[in-house]
Amino acid sequence: MRDGAPQGIYKVQALDRAFAVLDLLGESEAPLGLAQVASSLQLHKSTAHRFLMVLERHRMVERTSSGKFRLGLRLFDFGNRAIEQYDLRERAQPHLRRLVAETEETAHLCILEGAHVIYIDKIEPARSVRMITRIGASNPVHCTSVGKAILAFLPEDRVADIIRRTRFERFTHRTIATPEALRAEIEKTHRRGYAVDDEEFEEGLRCIAVPLLDAQRQPVAAISVSGPSFRVTAHKLPSIANHLLHCVRGIAMDMGFTSASRGHRAAWTA
């Protein structure tokens, strides 16, 4: 770090350099050696080496048998996920609109990122009492119906990792506060095929969610219906869950997740 340079500026410069390394490797037709990376970016070898080691640790770059560097397959995964998410949002919208028309409550489309869910779309009904959420916001998995819906259909190793990273912050007196309680809720969700947030994130708000499964029956997203608890009553949950199930089946078919639509049916009837 340069003397007197604010730490924040240094961190931004470090990010810029890391992306410069990725850009350089992406533009090259062949893997590059450490000296080539350092020379092309006008970096000291030790600095270039540190960036490459961090990127390699995160699988953003990989080393060939000759010791040279090229882009890692994790970037391929990210690219596929980005394309899928844009396509998912576009294909889901007509189904979400139909869901909102059927339930007269707010519908959300969410994806998993770490131990949080991110809201990538939201459609509201013409009601006076609405949800105060925004596209791009994120919430913890342990207190959201969409988070629990996704967790219930993930492989055990991923569930264990996410639970280890969850802080179990309390938002209301109903918030799930322990790993054991979350695991019990995940099991319950898997059995019945849908998840419920019963005023666990916000007082007076009840949400119900169903996962969207791909062709391998892995959750790629979750769809929820949310509203004030005086409207989204416990009595209405099975009916709303049925509307959600039809919604995710339609999205799965449009996305080409043909075997997943059968998987949703199996999960619902289990």
What class, by secondary structure content?
A: alpha+beta
Question: Could you list the spans in which at least 5 consecutive residues all have pLDDT below 50?
Answer: 265-270
Major beta-sheet overview: 6 strands, antiparallel
Shape: elongated
Q: Strand arrangement, largest sheet? A: 5-4-3-8-7-6
| C-alpha-based Rg, rounded | 22 Å
* β-sheet strand percentage: 15-25%
Q: Which architecture of the largest domain would the CATH scheme give at its second level? A: 2-Layer Sandwich
Q: Give, in order, the helices and strands.
A: HHHEEHEEEHHHEEEHH
Give the integer mean of the pLDDT values: 88
List the domain count as a whole number: 2
Q: Considering the protein shown, what is the CATH homologous superfamily of the largest domain?
A: GAF domain
Q: What percentage of residues falls in helices of 4 or more residues? A: 40-55%
What is the CATH level 1 assignment of the largest domain?
A: Alpha Beta
Distance between the termini: 58 Å
Q: Could you say what the CATH topology of the largest domain is called?
A: Beta-Lactamase
The helix tally amounts to 9
Chain-wise SSE layout:
Elements: H1 7-27, H2 34-41, H3 45-57, E1 61-63, E2 69-71, H4 73-103, E3 106-113, E4 116-123, E5 138-140, H5 145-151, H6 156-165, H7 179-192, E6 195-198, E7 205-213, E8 219-228, H8 237-255, H9 258-269
Antiparallel strand pairs: 1-2, 3-4, 3-8, 4-5, 6-7, 7-8
Helix pairs in contact: 1-3, 2-3, 4-8, 8-9
